[in-house]
Every structure is written in C-alpha cells, then in structure tokens.
C-alpha cells in the first residue's frame, strides 16, 4: 500500500527530455501501470489510516470524468450559468443535510456556500472577508499595516498559521486551551482581545476548530461565537474532517453555536465520499467576501454581473478561473442519498470504536484519543512508542501516522475511507501487535 | 453555444431539499444532459472565442479520469512519491520545451516547477517568496506592516491586484507604460523604486506580464530583470496565455531575459491542450518558496522529509493537500509530443491571422490588436462598437468578449481552442458582419 522506493527512483526511470513525437494512449496507460502506480501511496487502500482520509466513490469519479470532458470554466455566472447555480443548489442542500442555519444558504439572500480547493483556501478567504470588515475596506488599499490580529489555538491546523502568514498578518495569536482538553479557553481569548485593543491593534478574525487534526478536539463555539459577536470579530470555524459527522443528528452537538459563526468549512473530500478537491465553505455574510475580493476589469464585464442578480464565484475565492466544481458533489449526494452518507459516517465510526476497544483491552497499550473516526494511542513507554512508529512506517501493508499528545509520541489512525471494513481493522491490529513485540 | 437562460432558472428547476434516498448513476447522467448541459456556456465549442481559452483534449480527459480513480493526495513526497517525482519530471520537460533556463529545473538543484491551480495562486506564492527574501524571514512572524511594495502596470491581470490585496500589501503600485505600447516603462519602475526606498518602504516584488489579457502586450523583461537583480527585488513573470507560444522557436523572443526572473508562470490549461486547472510555475530559488511556506506539525513529520532528499510540494503552494496534478500534463505532452503541441500553437495563430486579415480588409472596421492568437477590433465609431458588442453578447452561436483599448470599447476574439478551424473563422466573421449592419 505504501511504495517501496527510494527518493529519485522515478526521476531516473523516466527520460530526462520531453518526447518530440506523439505516443498512443495505450502506451501511456501501460506506463501508468508500470511506472506510476507502483510508486504511489494508495490513499484508497483499506489499510490506509494515515492523516485524514481523501475519499472517492464511483459517483465522484464519474462526475470528475464528465467535468473534465465538458471543460467549462465557471468564474462568473455568465461563463456557465448552470455551473454556478448548481453550486448554489448543492451547497444549500448540504447546509440542510448538515444542520447548518438558514443564514448560510444562498436562498437566505445574504449568505451562501462555495466550493474551495482546500480548508487552507477557506481560511484565506475568511481572513480577507474579516479584514474587509475590520478595516471597513481600508485594508484593500492600505494593506494590513501590522495592525490586524488573528487568533486560534496551537492545535489549529497548520493551514491557519500559513493563512495568517500569507495574509500578511504574521503568526496568529495562540490562545491557551482549557486544561487537559485541547479546547480553546474563551476567557483567555477575551483577555487577549482586550489587551490587543488596548495596544491599538485590531482583532480581526478568530479561527475555531471542530475536530482538530491531532486529537479531534472541539473548540467551544457557543462561547467563542458570543464573544466574537460582542467584539465584532469575524469567526471562522474549520471543521474540515469532523464536519461531515453532523450529517447524523446524534453528532449535531459538535456544531452547537454555529449560527454565531461568520464562515464555516467542511472538506467533503475528507469524509463524504467525494474526490479531492472539494472543500465546502459557507458564509452568512457574502457581501464581506465579494467586497473584499471583487475586481472588475473591462474584459470581465457582462450584463448578468452588472444586473446584480447573479452570483459570480470568482469573488468568493483566491483564483479567478475555476472548473465546474459542483457536479461531483451533486453526483455524490444523489448517488448515495443523505441516508447513505449518514450510514457511511456511522459505519466508519463503528470501525474506530472497534479498534479503540482492542487497544483498551491490550496490556502495554494506552488509548489517548477516541473521537468519531480518530483513534490515537501509545505504548507504555515513549521509547516503545517510537519504536512502534518506526516499524509501522517501514511496513508497506498499512499506514498509521505519528502525532504527539501532551508532549508524548503517539500513533494516529483515522477512519473515514469507504473501503475499510471489520476485516481491515483486525488485520491492522494484528500488524500493530506484531510490531509492538 | 451560450445558453439562453435567465438568472435563477436552474435554482427553480432543481429540488430545494437534498435527496434522502440513493438514485442510480443512470438517472444522474440523464439529468446532466437534461438540466445541466443546456445551461452551460460551452468553452470547448469551436465558436468560443471569449476570454482566453480553457483547453482540453482526449489525453487530458483520460488522465483526469485516472487521477480521480486513483484518488491519491500528494502533499508530500512520502504521501505518494511517484506523484511528486512525476511533477518534477514533467515540469522539467516543459521547461526544456519552452526554452526556459536550466535554473528553473529541478535537476538544477536550486529551482524547479510546480503545478498550481491558477496564475492567481502563482502570484500569491511568488509574493510570499518575495516577502520572505525582502524581509529576511521577518515577515513570517511580523506581517507586512505596510512596508513592502509590489509593482506592475495597469494592464497586468486582475489577479495581480487581488494577490497584492490578499497578501496584505494593499493595491500594487502601478508603473507607467511606454506610450502607445502597453509595455512597462523600466525607467518609471526604477524611479518608483528609488522613491519608495527613500520613503523607508521596501520594494519586494515586480510582476511583469508576457501577453496581457487586453492587448497581449509584453513587458520588457530584460530591462526589468536587470533592474530587479540590481535592486534585489523578486521578479515574477506572468505568461499565463502567451507563454505556451514559446514551444515554437520563432516565438522564443517573447521570453528574452527570462533567466533574470525569480519565478515564471504559464497556464497549460489555456493553450496547451490540458484541462483546467494546470498552471505551471517555475522558480530559480525554491528555498525562498519553502522557507516562506513550510510549517511542520508532528502529524506531518516523516523520515523522507526529515532527510532533506525529497521535494514536498505542500511548501510550494497555498493549500496543504493536493491531488496528483502532473498526470494529465504527462499524458498531454506524450500524447501530442512537443512537435504536436508546437503545431497546435501555429495552427491557432494562423486562424487569428485569418480573422485579422478579414477585419483589415473590411470598411468600417479597425484592427486594434493582432498578437499571437489574440485579435481585438472596433467599428468606426464607439457607438457602433457598443452596438456590435451588445448584439454579439445576445447571439448564442458564438462568443466574443468586450474590452477597451486606449479608452475606446473594442471586441476581443482569442484563439487557442483545439476545436476551431478555418470554417469557424468564416462563420464567426459572417455573424460579426451581419450584426454590424
């Protein structure tokens, strides 16, 4: 499942100069199987439990094929009306299926959803909207001038730091977590915002996480949201992985308080049977996004945009151009039905519980985290954990990844792939026990 | 070719609530043809001459299908070695085919290529690298603090302004153009850089354009490049459309001086038979990119990255995750051969010349621009041009788009689609003459 290859092996296997003459697609297919596939880490393999998953499904793959064949570019409504309106429809559908507030739907008239390539891009877009609001538009011409602040915890995804950096804000301000929980401390956030205001700085955006990468911690969105409303600070909630769980009513509590957020993002490509890239981002204030990002040179003018009656997704994202992004999500939602997607979530969570149960019952193993599809565990000593990790990283038949919990090394297994089943869990567990001996 | 639909027609045609039950792929395919395809603007239609093209080809579509099916995520070398190394190989291939300097190749050891989603993202990445260099890393923690400056002309693509804004720099500084040419005036740039330094500001990045969107103007890269070297300012060259032309030796002069650039971007999805997104960006200083964007939490640690012997493309782009981006460019380059891609460029340029010739010969028409595949023209009076534009925008059988040249409205036709032929040109010209009468 993970390839046995040294750095540079493909570099030397392929010609160093480009082909002058055309070759047949048959030759390409043969070479794909001969030289490319053996060098891939197979993210769709059942025993791939690394990182968070990247999903796919027959419906998604078929839709990608059709999307590529149609080859339309939906930067504006006028450049393919159905591409834009389908995205409005499916993001409204998904908002309903996930239990999001009406304000996040296009049909509300003030909010709506958009498909980004990644949770990273969602952070950048949310930050632009936040700066637009906090600066009353001044940021667009004057830059950030070292005055605006972003806040998150140290457990936020690396894309939050990267987003802050790329937006010219420097490092985000790290807010303390409630002891032993990994959850942002709202009182600490409040104090930091007060201090920053007193120092003449402008608190602009808080990024809260629902389901952190390391331990699947959930920041207290209700408290943070009330604080952000009171302080007029943009609240972006990143639920890249865990957000899909709220398809099921029994996990809706994960997004308590989400109506207080200004924007929210879930990676359908992580846990909703949709191929990457498919990050779905919603906002309740689309004017802040478009005010921040709209630029209209003469070559993009058109009657539909001028009428103000349409959505132009170019103003909701970093790039200008965009493929038809919604078709695959439309295919996935209809081919599975919301019922099918819900059952998939429950199936994956049951498998995680199965592994967690095996770990708990095993002497010399310690279960650190079991939340949704995430299982994090360690051995009795850190040396034993490190030894297990290095053996696991050398085993080509499965993939678990390293992490650390409370400063101690740990092993991380994430469920959410459609191809994992109970037999896989038994196999993975058998390998883990073997490597631990 | 352009759909006859009112804003909101798909919104009302589709159910407002998501489907609870699964449906068959057959139903989805039928609905795609019934409700989606009629609402698309068909970018692959022969008479689509709007904007710059978005290409595709059988090889590209097949590769997208395979990419979706394999479903790997190549954020790091270790998460799919062949995905990363294939991207190193094909960007090196393309650098050779386009006549780029060795310093832009991975094999040089200091530079290399990466596939971005868009020229916009390439600007953002180049800006991050430029800020890293100009601030000696200080920007990463302290933000832009209103001190760093970006420069371009008013003819630069809208993504340059958007990039500057998103990077926290405010508006880019607009440098005057040489009279009647649309080309950046290097003396004006030099004077502005001097003024900014005198004011305590830090000139960080110049974005020059090879082939502007409106008139296909080419900034004088040799002069700008020498100035940037002398001033230690990052030079990014955006050749999103025109860059593909240098596949042919007779157009290599377009990139004279490119060895002086720090980064360079060409959209293979515009004019190289490759589906969107496929922006190829090269740099001669990859350390500036990775120093700017690398963040390594424990869950991304792995022995290959720690060894320093591999490329991790997550540090060359905005998002963390990425699909296997190189497969379709590999397929396109091999299925066409560089010879085939060259012939495609020449074919498209011949068609543009054919239309330009017809316009020149027609009383009451004035040819404003004829460069590579771009033809821009106007009628004898601005009122007549505006009238022609509005009739063209209402004609569903072809697409030309509006622009302005020297403050006067004009019609823009861009060639570069594989499906346009001489018959198309005759048809389009017949419609234009009819609408003009």
Keyword list:
alpha/beta, Aspartate Aminotransferase, domain 2, 437 residues, globular, 4-stranded antiparallel sheet, homodimer, Aspartate Aminotransferase, domain 1, pyridoxal phosphate (chains A, B), 7-stranded mixed sheet, PyrdxlP-dep_Trfase (chains A, B)
Describe this structure in words.
The structure is a homodimer of 437-residue chains. Chain A is an alpha/beta fold and 437 residues long. Chain A folds into two domains: 272 residues, 3-Layer(aba) Sandwich (Aspartate Aminotransferase, domain 2), CATH 3.40.640.10; 99 residues, Alpha-Beta Complex (Aspartate Aminotransferase, domain 1). The first copy, chain A, has 15 helices and eleven strands. In chain A, the strands form two sheets. A seven-stranded mixed beta sheet of chain A has the order 1-7-6-5-4-2-3, with helices on both faces. Chain A has a four-stranded antiparallel beta sheet with strand order 8-9-11-10. In chain A, strand 4, helix 9 and strand 5 form a beta-alpha-beta unit. In chain A, helix 5 packs across helix 11 and helix 14 crosses helix 15. Chain A starts with 8 loop residues before the first helix and ends with a helix. The interface between A and B is large, with 143 and 143 residues.
Summarize the model shown.
Two copies of one chain form a homodimer. By secondary structure, the first copy, chain A, is of the alpha/beta class.
**What is the subunit arrangement here?**
homodimer
Instruction: List the secondary-structure elements of chain A in sequence, H or E.
Output: HHHHEHHEHEHEHEEHEHHHEEHEEH
Query: Count of DSSP helices of chain A?
Result: 15
Structural class of chain A: alpha/beta
Q: What's the overall geometry of chain A? A: globular
Low-confidence stretches of chain A: none
Overall number of strands of chain A: 11
| Gap between N and C termini of chain A | 22 Å
- Tell me the major beta sheet of chain A: 7 strands, mixed
Overall tally of structural domains of chain A: 2
Order of strands, main sheet of chain A, comes to 1-7-6-5-4-2-3
Residue share in helix of chain A: 40-55%
Broad CATH class of the largest domain in chain A: Alpha Beta
> Which protein chains make the most extensive interface, counting residues with beta carbons within 8 Å of the other chain's beta carbons?
A-B, 143 and 143 residues
What's the gyration radius of chain A in Å?
A: 23 Å
Q: Supply the CATH superfamily name of the largest domain in chain A.
A: Type I PLP-dependent aspartate aminotransferase-like (Major domain)
CATH architecture classification name of the largest domain in chain A: 3-Layer(aba) Sandwich
Keywords (chains A, B): Aminotransferase, Decarboxylase, Lyase, Pyridoxal phosphate, Transferase
Family (chains A, B): Belongs to the group II decarboxylase family.
Pfam families (chains A, B): Pyridoxal_deC
GO molecular function (chains A, B): transaminase activity
